[in-house]
Amino acid sequence: MIDKPFSQACDNNRGPILEVLQQHLKAPGTLLELGSGTGQHAAWMPHFLPHIHWQPSDLPERLPGIHAWLADNRPVNVADPLVLDMAQPWPALACDYLLTVNTFHILAQDDVARAIQHAGKRLPTGGLFVVYGPFNYDGRFTSESNARFNDWLRHQHPASAIRDIEWVCAAMNAAGMTLADDQAMPANNRTLVFRRTAEQ
User: Fold this and answer.
1) Cα–Cα dist 135/131, whole Å
2) Buried (b) or exposed (e) across 73-112, using 16+ Cβ within 10 A?
3) What is the DSSP letter of 91?
4) What is the β-pairing status of strands 29-34 and 97-101?
């Protein structure tokens, strides 16, 4: 058994994100979590969403950590994590909801665009794509801490950066999704809820 990975950010943001999910995920269905990371969300949130079948996913090297969290406290409505690279073709899996937390600023912008295209093809009409993280508005950082965070991201990887919400919305619209909600979150983050409205 490996040691469980831990993210303080996951511990901090799980409550506010859950509140948004409880507002919007009213109907029973399958939620595909993209980039499950440490697995902390998959081991906690589904306890409070018993009508949702939760499917974690991430890159192969992340799966052992997700398994470790689920082995400790697994909700009955959580599936085994599967391998999924957001920017590559996704495995065949029907889902009603998508959730991704703190991934859009890590991925290169072209990879975010590919993930959005995959999402548009996967969600049914009326399906929701919930995206959490920091975003810029009108091309500006929403706080000095976000500007510093963006500098740190670019230092780690030149292709990483906080995305402009206008660009994200345009990419979502091109994939048949429209912005249904935009909620402020702690630590200068946002939760964006996009609804699948049209066939591509």
Assistant:
1) 10
2) eebeebbebbebbbeeebeeeebbbbbbbbbbbbbebebb
3) P
4) parallel
Distance CA 110, CA 55 (A): 25
Contact yes or no for 177/122 (Cβ under 8 A): no
> Quick one: which H or E segment has residue 138?
none
Q: What angle do CA 50, 52, 54 make, to 5 degrees?
A: 110
10 Å CB burial of residue 188 (0-12, 13-18, 19+) is middle
Give the span between the Cα atoms of 83 and 63, in whole angstroms: 8
Q: CA-CA distance, 16 to 19, in Å (whole number)?
A: 5
How is 19-37 classified by DSSP, letter by letter? HHHHHH--S-EEEEEE--T
Of 189, 28, 5, nearest in space to 101 by CA: 189
Q: What is the mean pLDDT of each run of 10 residues along the chain (200 residues)?
A: 86 97 98 97 98 98 96 94 95 95 98 97 96 98 97 97 98 97 97 87
Per the structure block, which two tokens stand in for 3?
Answer: 């040691």
User: Helix 109-122 and helix 165-174: axis angle, to 10°?
Assistant: 40
| Structural tokens at position 110 | 């072209």
Query: Measuring CA to CA, which residue among 194, 21, 29, 24 is closest to residue 116?
Result: 194
